[in-house]
Amino acid sequence: MQKFAHDAISAIFPTIYPGQLVLQITDACNATCGQCGMRVTNRFPRTRMSLDYVKAIIDRAAENRVKAISFTGGEPFLMAEELFEMIRHAHRAGIPFIRTGTNGFLLRFTGDEDNFKKRVYPLAEKLAKSGLRNFWISIDSASPNRHERMRGLPGVIKGIEQALPIFESAGIYPSANLGINRYMGRGESPLMLLSQNRDAFHHAACEAFSQFYRFVVDLGFTIVNACYPMSMEDNREAVYSATSRDTLVSFSREEKVILFQALMETIPGYRKQIRIFSPLSSLHALIKQYTRQGNCYSSYPCLGGHSFFFVDSRDGNTYPCGYRGSENMGKYQTLNMKSVINKKTFCRRCDWECFRDPSELFGPFMEMLNHPLSLLKRFHEDPEMIKYLFSDLRYYQKCDFF
Ligand code: SF4
Ligand code: SF4
C-alpha cells in the first residue's frame, strides 16, 4: 500500500513543487454555447498566446517539476498546428500528463465521407504521435439535437460517433466531457428548478446522469468526466470567461448537493461500462462542504494558487485559477515558487473540477506526509471518506490513472 500511495502521489501530485498548469492558449471560439462568455456571437477582441511564449512557460513548468499541463480555450484546435507543437514540446520537456480538448468542430460529419476521412485520420495520427495523454470532447446533452443546437455545430454528434473508432485505431481514447447543465439528459425540457420538490429533482438528476452515461457509451466513448457547474455565488471577478451565471449552469447550493448526490449514486452502476474519472471521495467531500457537516469543512482546500495555476490568454499572466481574477500573479516564468508553495491553502469558493478533484483525491496523502495525526482524526470523524477514497484509488489504478 505504501508503495502504491507513493507512486500515486509522485505520478500526479507534487510534494513540494507546483503540479498543474491550465494554459488558456486562446479565447477564440467558433461555437455558440449560451452558458459561455467566449461563444462566437459575443463581440470582444480575441487573443491567442504565441508558440514561443507557451514554450517558455512549458520550459519553466518542467523546471518546476509540473506534472500536468492542460491546453484549453476557447477552442484550442482553432490553432491546431501551434497546439500540436505545444503538446510535442511539453512531451519533450518530460511533462507526463498533457491534456487538451475540443468542441468537436473538426469532427463534424455533413455527409461527405471523403472529406470527413481527410480531416479525421490525419488529426488522429498527429494526436497519437504528439505525446498527448488525455483528449476531451465536450458533450452537453444526451440528446444529439439539443447538444448540436447548444453548440451551434450541426453534424458533430454523428461525426464524433464515426471518429471514435478512427481515434482508437490510432491509440487515442477520447473522453466525453460533460459540463453539468440543465439539459444534460435526453428529454427536451430542462432539469427542473428545485423549488419545493426535492425528491422529484433528485430523481430527475439521477435519470439525466444515467441517460448521459448510456448515451456516451452508445456513441463509443470509453472515458467520461463530469465538470461540476462552472458557477459560483459571485463570479464577477472570474478571469476565465467559461464561468457563467446563466441558469443553464447555475444551481443553488441545495441543488448542487442533490446533483452531487445523484452523480455519486449513478457512477457505481456505470464504472464497469466506461472509465469514469469523477472521484466519489471528491463528491462526498463537496456534499459535506455544502451541507456544513462535521466540525469544520470536510473538504480539503483547493490547491489553486499553491500547486495549480491558470494562465490567461488575454494578458499571458498567471492566476490562482480561472476564478480568482483579482489575484494577478504576473508571468509564470518569473513566479517565485518557493514563496508560493509556502502559502497556506484555504480556498473552497467554487467547484472547478480540474482543481477540486485532484486537491481532494490527494489531500489525504499530503496530510499523511505533513500532519498524520490530523489525518487520523479526519478518518475517525468521517469513516465514509476512507471507503470512498480507497474505492477511487482501486478504480483509478485499474484505469491506469487515466
Ligand atoms: S464552452 Fe467551449 S466550445 Fe462553448 S463557447 Fe465556450 S469555449 Fe467555445
Ligand atoms: S476553489 Fe480552487 S478553483 Fe475555485 S476559486 Fe478557489 S482556488 Fe479557484
Query: What ions, cofactors and ligands are bound?
Result: iron/sulfur cluster
Low-confidence runs:
none
Number of domains: 1
The CATH class turns out to be Alpha Beta
Class of secondary structure makeup? alpha/beta
**Biggest β-sheet strands, sense, barrel:** 9 strands, mixed
Helix percent reads: 40-55%
How much of the polypeptide forms β-strand, as a percent range?
5-15%
Question: What's the arrangement of strands in the largest beta sheet?
Answer: 7-6-5-4-3-2-1-8-9
Backbone CA Rg: 20 Å
Number of helices: 13
Briefly, what is this?
The chain contains 13 helices and nine strands.
How would you describe what is shown here?
Residues 15-271 form the Radical SAM core domain. Keywords: Iron, Iron-sulfur, Metal-binding, S-adenosyl-L-methionine. Its cofactor is [4Fe-4S] cluster. InterPro entries: Aldolase_TIM, Radical_SAM_PqqE_MftC-like, rSAM, rSAM_sf. With 402 residues, this protein is an alpha/beta fold. The chain has one domain (19-361): TIM Barrel. It is built from 13 helices and 9 strands. The protein has helices at 2-12, 51-63, 80-92, 113-130, 144-151, 156-169, 198-219, 253-270, 280-291, 337-341, 353-370, 372-381, 383-398; strands at 20-24, 68-72, 97-102, 134-138, 175-179, 223-227, 275-276, 308-311, 318-319. It has a 9-stranded mixed beta sheet, sandwiched between helices. A hairpin with a 6-residue loop joins strand 8 (308-311) and strand 9 (318-319). The longest helix has 22 residues, at 198-219. The radius of gyration is 20 Å and the shape is globular. The two termini are 20 Å apart. The mean pLDDT is 89.
